[in-house]
C-alpha cells in the first residue's frame, strides 16, 4: 500500500523551469478528494488540501498543503495505512520551503522533515528514530536550483501553460525525495474527454516516463488526466501494474478562495 499512495503523488511530479507559473490556478482553501480502486475493489482514499490561511517561511508567503491517504475495506484489514505528507510552497515562485511526511503502514513508521534553503541550494533533512524515539542529527544535501518535493511539484505542474506545448513534448524537472534528487520526465500526450463522478471533462493527458522496474508494466504504464481549464484539476490516474490496474478517481472538488 505504501507504493500505491507514493505512486499517487509521484504521478504528478513534473515541471518546466522556463515557464512562468500562473498564480490563479489554485488558492487557499482548495480541497480535492479521491478514491483509489484496485480492479473493482475500493483500496483507499486520499485528500489534498491547501490550508485556509497562508503561512510564512524565509520571508515569503506560502501555501500550506497537506495530503492524507488511508486504506479502506479489506485493504485496511490486511495493511492499515495512515499516511500524511505536507509542503509549504512559495506563492510566487512555487518552490517549496519545507516538506514533511508521517508514514504509518502496518508496523512500519517513518517521520521526516526537510527544510529547503533554495538560495543556497541545500536541503536539510531531519529524521525521527521511531524505535528509540528521538530525532536524529540534521543532514544537509546539495540540491539543484528550484528543486521541488514530491507534493509541491504536483502543484507546480498545474501552473504550466500547456497551450504553449506540442503533443508529445517532454517536461522535465528535479525532485528531492528520500535523500536523492530525481530527474523526472513526463510526456504531454494530448487532449481527450474523461468521465468522472463530477461529470465529463475535456482533459489534458499526461504520461510519466517510468524507468524499467518490477512494479509498473512498461515505460508509459501511467496516465494522468487534468481538466483542460483554468484550474487544471487532477481528475484521474490510471496505472497498469504487473499485478493489475490501479485507478485514482476524483470524488469531490472544492475551489480555493479568492485572495
Entry summary:
This protein is mainly beta. It has a single domain (2-254), classed as YmcC-like fold (Beta Barrel), CATH 2.40.360. The chain has three helices and 16 strands.
Describe the structure.
The chain has three helices and 16 strands. The radius of gyration is 18 Å and the shape is globular. With 259 residues, it is mostly beta strands. The protein has a 16-stranded antiparallel sheet that branches. The chain starts with a helix and ends in a 5-residue tail after the last strand. The chain has helices at 2-10, 73-78, 152-158; strands spanning 31-38, 41-50, 55-57, 60-71, 82-90, 96-105, 108-117, 122-129, 134-135, 139-142, 170-177, 180-196, 199-208, 222-227, 234-241, 244-254. Helices cover 8% and strands 53% of the residues. It has one domain (2-254): YmcC-like fold (Beta Barrel), CATH 2.40.360. Strand 15 (234-241) and strand 16 form a beta hairpin.
Oligomer: single chain
Q: What's the SSE pattern? A: HEEEEHEEEEEEHEEEEEE
- The helix fraction, in percent, is under 10%
Averaging pLDDT over every residue, what do you get? Answer: 87
Count of distinct strands: 16
Tell me the span between the first and last alpha carbons: 37 Å
Question: What are the defining features of this structure?
Answer:
mainly beta, 259 residues, disordered N terminus, YmcC-like fold, 16 strands
Strands, helices and their partners?
Elements: H1 2-10, E1 31-38, E2 41-50, E3 55-57, E4 60-71, H2 73-78, E5 82-90, E6 96-105, E7 108-117, E8 122-129, E9 134-135, E10 139-142, H3 152-158, E11 170-177, E12 180-196, E13 199-208, E14 222-227, E15 234-241, E16 244-254
Amino acid at each position: 500500500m505504501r507504493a500505491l499512495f507514493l505512486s499517487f503523488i509521484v504521478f504528478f511530479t513534473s515541471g518546466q523551469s522556463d515557464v512562468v507559473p500562473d498564480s490563479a490556478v489554485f488558492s487557499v482553501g482548495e480541497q480535492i478528494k479521491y478514491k483509489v480502486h484496485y480492479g473493482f475493489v475500493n483500496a483507499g482514499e486520499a485528500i489534498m488540501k491547501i490550508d485556509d490561511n497562508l503561512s510564512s517561511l524565509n520571508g515569503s508567503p506560502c501555501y500550506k498543503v497537506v495530503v492524507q491517504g488511508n486504506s479502506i475495506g479489506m485493504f485496511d484489514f490486511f495493511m492499515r495505512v495512515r499516511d500524511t505528507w505536507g509542503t509549504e510552497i512559495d506563492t510566487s515562485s512555487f518552490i517549496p520551503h519545507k516538506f514533511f511526511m508521517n508514514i504509518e503502514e502496518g508496523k512500519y513508521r517513518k517521520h521526516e522533515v526537510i527544510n529547503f534553503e533554495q538560495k543556497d541550494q541545500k536541503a536539510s533533512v531531519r529524521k525521527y528514530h521511531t524505535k528509540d524515539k528521538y530525532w536524529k542529527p540534521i543532514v544537509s544535501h546539495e540540491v539543484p536550483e528550484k528543486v521541488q518535493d514530491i507534493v509541491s511539484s504536483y502543484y507546480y505542474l498545474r501552473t504550466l501553460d500547456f497551450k504553449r506545448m506540442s503533443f508529445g513534448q517532454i517536461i522535465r524537472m528535479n525532485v528531492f525525495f528520500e535523500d536523492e534528487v530525481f530527474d523526472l520526465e513526463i510526456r504531454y500526450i494530448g487532449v481527450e474527454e474523461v468521465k468522472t463522478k463530477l461529470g465529463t471533462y475535456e482533459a489534458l493527458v499526461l504520461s510519466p516516463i517510468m524507468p524499467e522496474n518490477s512494479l509498473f508494466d512498461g515505460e508509459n504504464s501511467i496516465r494522468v488526466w487534468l481538466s483542460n481549464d483554468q484550474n487544471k484539476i487532477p481528475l484521474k490516474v490510471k496505472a497498469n501494474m504487473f499485478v493489475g490496474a490501479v485507478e485514482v478517481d476524483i470524488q469531490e472538488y472544492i475551489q480555493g478562495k479568492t485572495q
